[in-house]
């Protein structure tokens, strides 16, 4: 059954790839900030991925994936145009609330670059002045620069090695933006927890409302297992149904990072076993 | 006609059911209870007095004609027994296995007043399993009408409603968020208690009635209840999304790695097949010493699963006494046989940190029973100065669930003050044509209660659509 068919694929680098998947109903329903859960095959695990883009006319949603472990690497190897995913469910999570900010920073780093795009576009459409700040390790990892230029009023590119844009971390980009604009009233930051934590720290002194999209380990994505719980201020929230967006100044990132290591030994074992099997003739 | 049976003439002992040896089964996921064979079923059927006042029927939430089907077994007319069962209960193989019979049908059985009650559940299972083996199914002649019915959630509530509406001639689609239908039966209750092939066989019968299953569909988010009615052409909708949203104890250490809900453990193990990791990709937390908090069915399942996954020790920590434990009696009994250590009147106060983000122990206090509380059970109170520690590396919470929030977030359905869907006595919600039942209305209950609710909603739905029974 060719449900959830992959209709296009693009490889941005050795580790980052894009899949455009057919799901007309989801393309109509998706809103910025939402995610899907994917199962590659019948034996697969359920992994959450942000809806990085959706095209209501083509009836597709777009996922941008970093190959970091067993499942994402196997998808990188096996998901070709014309093949299908075994499972795809969503859109999940509460859509990002697009209020009426006047000037907003949209910050994306690592696997957060793609997910911040629909938010930047929606904020722009809502009339905000959008400053995009994107962080990559080096020039050859950059993707979607054109898309972001079209959606942002200003774009600050940061690379760790200075091979493109400004040399430095994302927080250096934020410092530049804040130095140039005293009136930034909101910040959206998506990326690895360390990066989101640093962004929240960078905006805290100026009390700029900072929304982050947390990425804890999930199973069902429907609020049934509690595996995705995060500490937000004094509360415990389930990211899949109460989030995934939360106030970055309240999220306990250290707790999040610890919880993301819950299955490290098993994940290493799974990946090792899989890569060994790939080398077999 | 045979001689009239009396309490003195019937077999005095309840016919035992063959079981896997506890030492063996605690290491495998094969079914624990093997079921009756014909001979055993015949013998047990002779224990039924065929009471004219039929007290057992009123003990069954769906009112199965119990003496009727037992009598057919006695006549060796198993097909007839099956027909009687399925005229009220769609899933005899499932209910026979998982109903808390001692609180329901068997709890009020006349024989039970002086001897052990008739094993109604085991007989029901025997008939259901025979039907699966023989490939029987009761697909009636269905006269199609033009109504379309949407069912949200494929647990027992949704399945029961779907079956009745399909039999009434409607075009029925069941939407399920997971990749497979079945609800708690699939993701929660482990195979050694309810094997997946049994569930799939019962689901197949729904397919034979023409029910369509659409999995991977999160209603509320992919489309809303309102859209189903206004845009997608459904004439009526039933919401049976279950409860979910597991509670935590809110004690220090709750968020440590190594503390998880029974739902998470069971879903990883059962539905996602984590117990076959790495042949299946979903990792499963394994504990050497596992402490499970709670004493309901969910807790028993989490403990017995942990034992099978290779734990050296599994503790049950419960703040009340054995008498108050909400689990089915048989499950407590089986868990005890399998070597689970029960610590009644014990309440956790803190999960202890191993310094690396994981768990090293569980600090508890001893409890004693005080005055009865609003539930009529004696309220446990902590004994001052009685703190002590369990050494454990995995803590599993099985202390109940709250309402799943998705329906409330995405529809105009009126909720009650606890977040469950509000309905009237006929299970109608605040939206015309939309009905709800099962755990999402009552809070966590039982399989047969959920099925009963699904059937009741179907009756209301038929009345709403003007379909005559
Ligand atoms: C809401 C949300 C949105 C996400 N969006 C994206 C995205 O757009 N692009 C992208 O590349 N990645 C995204 N992720 C992360 C992605 O789910 C993980 O990288 C992926 O599950 C790793 O699987 P693996 O088997 O390849 O690697 P593994 O080696 O199994 O895991 C690598 C690390 O990923 C995390 N992880 C593992 N399993 C899960 C799981 N079931 N759920 C969440 N995290 C897990 C753990 O921290 C783990 O240490 C998102 C996560 C969440 C929660
Ligand atoms: C571990 C465990 C053991 C149990 N043991 C027993 C027992 O021995 N005996 C007994 O009688 N009872 C037992 N119970 C209780 C019993 O299983 C439940 O009361 C019963 O399953 C409730 O049925 P339901 O149809 O209301 O919901 P569920 O069985 O919870 O099914 C709801 C379904 O809806 C799906 N869903 C949720 N949200 C959406 C959405 N937005 N869109 C689409 N689909 C959605 C879910 O994925 C799920 O499949 C047990 C429960 C658990 C958790
Ligand atoms: S459905 Fe449950 S309560 Fe009813 S007769 Fe069967 S076992 Fe007893
Ligand atoms: S109450 Fe017991 S003995 Fe009487 S009819 Fe019911 S099952 Fe038979
Ligand atoms: S992923 Fe299970 S509750 Fe969020
Ligand atoms: Mg993985």
Automatic annotation (TrEMBL), chain A:
From what superkingdom does this record's organism come?
Bacteria
The answer to whether keyword Iron-sulfur applies is yes
Against SUPFAM superfamilies, the record matches this protein to: Ferredoxin reductase-like, C-terminal NADP-linked domain, Riboflavin synthase domain-like
Bias type Basic and acidic residues, positions: 266-276
Residues the entry annotates as binding [2Fe-2S] cluster: 225, 228, 240
Keywords for this entry? 2Fe-2S, FAD, Flavoprotein, Iron, Iron-sulfur, Metal-binding
Q: Report residues binding FAD.
A: 64-66
Specify the protein name: Sulfide/dihydroorotate dehydrogenase-like FAD/NAD-binding protein
Which species is the source of this protein? Ramlibacter lithotrophicus
